[in-house]
Amino acid sequence: MRLWFYAFFMAWGMFLAIPCPFPKWDERARYRMLVCLPLIGGMIGGLWALSAFLLSLFPCPAAIRALVLTAVPALITGFIHLDGFMDVSDAVLSRRDLAGRQKILKDPHTGAFAVLSAAFLLLSVFSLFFSWEYSKEDLLPLALIPVAVRASAGIAVILFKPMETSQYRGEKKKTLVIPLFVMLAAAIAVPAALNGVHGLAPASAALIYFLAALFAKKQLGGMSGDVSGYALTLGELAGVALTVLLRLFVR
């Protein structure tokens, strides 16, 4: 139990910009951090949904609401996943050979492909939230999108072959995927059961996470933190897109 306690706060300190109340590290809890990722996602999703709810209480311009909801998850995470998205985009879009793509992935400089990809990503999220016809039924699916993609991330990191330079190299306990699959199933099933088709956003987020992770893994020779951040960012975009589009077109 002590290692799980450490694992949760280690995940908090690594993946959240919110000051961690227990900034301690125990190397034995490293891989348990992966199981705690959905809990971190629950914190992010809860604050995301709370922001949407509070904005609905005031006559807030649609552009301001969209800006806040676009910024909230990035600010809470300290842009760590957006950084991975930009690194992978720079590498993959270079269209070089595997060695060249891996070299670009580790290059600390920011390339044009990374900047343009991030711009299109943020504009897409902003446009979706700007078009959102708000409904309180959408709050639960919105809150569970970060849970679903982080459960997917934990599963992918444990099961997918890592890059040679990845921090996730080494033997991992594959039994750790069991609680991750349980949390992923709950994040998908609960909103779907309560809201029907309007609750499918977490499922779409998880699906796109795995597709994006498989694509990036193939392009870069294995799984890494950057690959996970890339897939996680696209998964959250897909979840938001389905939430907004279903509200626009499905009554």
Q: What structural category characterises the helix and strand content?
A: mainly alpha
Which segments are poorly predicted (pLDDT under 50) over 5 or more consecutive residues? none
**Global outline:** globular
Largest sheet geometry: none
Fraction of residues in H or I helices: over 70%
Rounded to the nearest angstrom, the radius of gyration is 18 Å
Query: Number of folding domains?
Result: 1
Helix count, DSSP H or I runs of 4 or more residues: 10
Written overview of the protein:
- With 251 residues, the chain is mainly alpha-helical.
- The protein has one domain (38-249).
- The protein is 72% helix and 0% strand.
- It has ten helices and no strands.
- The longest helix is centred in the first third of the chain and has 25 residues, at 32-56.
- It is globular and about 50 Å long.
- It starts with a helix and ends with a helix.
- The mean pLDDT is 94.
